[in-house]
């Protein structure tokens, strides 16, 4: 089945700096890659997603890039703010299944 | 709208006890899911349902049971609780299945400890 690895597991940045979280997947036929943000005490919430026919997608300070050849995708957050502090999960939708496979999560801490 | 509501938020069980985690959604979503979240391990799918009366196993179904008698409710039953079931449980729903890239809407989670 699909396997999604996410790095780093923790990331600490200074406010205003950029943060990058990377994920690799194993199923080359996977075609949908969402990112979820989980704030403390809350359930995860979708923040951005990308499909396999697109290489990059932006939404204000957040962007996601996809490299199908290398089977990896990344979340980029620019001009980080304290409210960006949360756990971020990547996920992939394998071709053979109909359920998302999640990565292990990244705890992002933005220091004021 | 309340979205996805889970109860209880916290529960401590003794080994061998049983309990039901409740989940209700008011968005008229057909698809509902139960995940467990272990530290550093991401989210693992336990069971899911594509509509009332239909349920199917996910990645880690052993030790759990579900039912879906209505569109709104999707309870998760733990029989004979074991320490390995200590985790945070999330219920989620979506309008369409994730094979149609349906966005998942999560509840706030239920933290279960089995001692």
Task: Summarize, please.
Chain A has no helices and eleven strands.
Q: Describe it for me?
A:
By secondary structure, chain A is an all-beta fold. Chain A has no helices and eleven strands. Chain A has strands at about 5, 10-15, 20-25, 30-40, 45-50, 55-60, 60-65, 70-75, 85-90, 100, 105-110. In chain A, the strands form two sheets. In chain A, strands 2, 4, 5, 9, 10 and 11 form a six-stranded mixed β-sheet that branches. Chain A has a five-stranded antiparallel β-sheet with strand order 1-3-8-7-6, with no helix packed on it. Chain A is globular. The model of chain A has no long low-confidence stretch (mean pLDDT about 95). With about 120 residues, chain B is mainly β. Chain B is about 0% helix and about 50% strand. Chain B has no helices and eleven strands. In chain B, strands 2, 4, 5, 6, 9, 10 and 11 form a seven-stranded mixed β-sheet that branches. In chain B, strands 1-3-8-7 form a four-stranded antiparallel β-sheet, with no helix packed on it. Chain B is globular and about 35 Å long. The relative contact order of chain B is 0.32. The mean pLDDT of chain B is about 90. At the A-B interface, strand 4 and strand 5 of A face strand 5 of B.
Low-confidence stretches of chain B: none
Measured as a percent range, the helix fraction of chain A is: under 10%
Number of helices of chain B: 0
Largest sheet of chain A: 6 strands, mixed
């Amino acid at each position: 089945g699909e396997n999604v690895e996410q790095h780093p597991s923790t990331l600490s940045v200074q406010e205003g700096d950029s943060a990058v979280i990377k994920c690799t997947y194993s199923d080359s036929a996977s075609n949908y890659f969402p990112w979820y943000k989980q704030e403390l005490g809350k359930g995860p919430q979708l923040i951005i997603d990308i499909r396999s026919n697109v290489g990059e997608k932006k939404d204000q300070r957040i962007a996601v890039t996809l490299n199908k050849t290398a089977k990896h995708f990344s979340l980029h957050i620019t001009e980080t703010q304290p409210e960006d502090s949360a756990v971020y999960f990547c996920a992939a939708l394998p071709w053979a299944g109909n359920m998302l496979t999640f990565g292990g999560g990244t705890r992002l801490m933005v220091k004021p | 709208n309340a979205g996805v509501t889970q109860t209880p938020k916290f529960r401590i069980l003794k080994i061998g006890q049983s309990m039901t985690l409740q989940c209700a959604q008011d968005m008229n979503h057909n698809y509902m899911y139960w995940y467990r979240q272990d530290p550093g391990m991401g989210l693992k799918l336990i069971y899911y349902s594509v509509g009332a009366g239909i349920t199917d196993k996910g990645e880690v179904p052993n030790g759990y049971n579900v039912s879906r008698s209505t569109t709104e409710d999707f309870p998760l039953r733990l029989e004979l609780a074991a320490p390995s079931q200590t985790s945070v449980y999330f219920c989620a729903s979506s309008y369409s299945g994730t094979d149609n890239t349906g966005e998942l809407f999560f509840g706030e989670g239920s933290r279960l400890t089995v001692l």
